[in-house]
Amino acid sequence: MKILDNFLVELSVPLVEAMRAIEKNASGIVFTVNQGVLVGSLTDGDIRRALISGASLNDICGEYHNSELTFLPIGSSNAEIQAALDDNKKIIPLVDSRGVVLDFASRYKLHNFVIMEPYLKGNELKYVSDCVTSNWISSQGKYVTRFEKEISLLCGEGDCIATSNGTTALHLGLETLGIGKGDEVIVPSFTFGASVNAIIHAGATPVIVDVDLETWNIDPKEIKKAINNKTKAIMAVHIYGNPCDMDAIIELAKSYDLLIIEDCAEALGASIKGRPVGSFGDVAAFSFFANKTITCGEGGALIVNNSDLTLRASELRDHGMDKSKRYWHKYVGYNYRMTNLQAAIGLAQIEQFSMFIEKRKIIWNSYRKLLGSYDYFDFQLSRVDHSPASWLFTLLIRDDESISIDEIISRLKDFGIESRPVFFPMSEMPSFAELAEIYKDPNCKNISRRGLSLPSSISLTEKEIKYISNSLLTILNIDIASNKNV
Length: 486
Ligand SMILES: Cc1ncc(COP(=O)(O)O)c(C=O)c1O
Description:
16 helices, binds pyridoxal-5'-phosphate, CBS-domain, Aspartate Aminotransferase, domain 1, eight-stranded mixed β-sheet, 21 strands, four-stranded antiparallel β-sheet, alpha/beta, single chain, Aspartate Aminotransferase, domain 2
């Protein structure tokens, strides 16, 4: 149930229902609606006065509500909302063009659709409390072991080593595979900087190549062009949860005797012909940052698909210490461990994983339905046998000289909508210029220039997605009525 639901009562319900809602929202007021459309308000004072003058708790709200009230369009800027709030109007409903209440604002809560918020309504608090009360808050404890087991099951049963975040998982994976100085690792230009940083930290050279314009993933044709006798590995980043062309990548790896590292940071839950991402590479890294499909706050996991390397990965993660000889540093290692507290949150998240994936698919499909028929946009495409994780909903906006992506982002903010540009090409990072080999990447530049991510939290409702989509269309001066899908 959303907070908003505690503020709305139908006109026809008895006063006692309004009192229950007021009890829950603790704000002294409810808004009356007629089939979802705002028609008035009812305060606890109104109900008290009605009862004193002989009303019964079974009388309907419609007899006592006030039909005069202040409301604002959902697209109102936060400055407009602030101006409308005063001591008598502490809560203001925000409505769409038909008067349907989509949100409410108060001094403490201006309306805002954030890009991606975690959903922590399962056993997160219970499990974290258990860590605290049982004193197991560091990197040992039952939740780490249970988390590793569950992640392994979700990723095709490779061995799972939980880490402090996705970047440490990537670095640990490279180190586990023995990739270092003198080695080249081919990586897509369209990715988050952590993919490239990890290669540099391992002492190897990132070779940055272009991506496919349809899938936005590393293009196997470009990989082939970049292979030489120093090439040691390919980093396949499943960007925005869309699986890479693993058939082609595995074929190249076999032909040229290369290792594969999957960067699955954004892709937990994605699969190819029913086989989960993370099970294709020699190793694979996942991220559980707060905006990811499941979160630990910060957190990561390395999947090792060659069990001969599992012990090495685990020892490298734990200061390089020999598992059978305490304080004996077999390797120059790292402390990349996940804490029991992180794992406790992560385990509670895994319990809700199928619901998260379903919800994300619904969100993704709703956006596609609402925006898909305008030739103003291009969408990330997947092959038919690939099942993406539908992570952050992102689209490409047609080049338009009259409005830039930055301006669209700023205009959406006025509508209370947070949006994001996509990653810059890795080829353009001054910090990587000296340390990387860089190939031409026109497709990546195209995606980077035109990409926009929209709010994708699983708590979003159909109505809210429609509001967000219509706001974008309005900003772009697109005729909303011309949508053939709705
Ligand atoms: C593609 C990609 N790789 C690696 C990472 C690094 O993960 P983390 O932030 O958990 O270190 C991220 C994300 O945040 C990512 O999006």
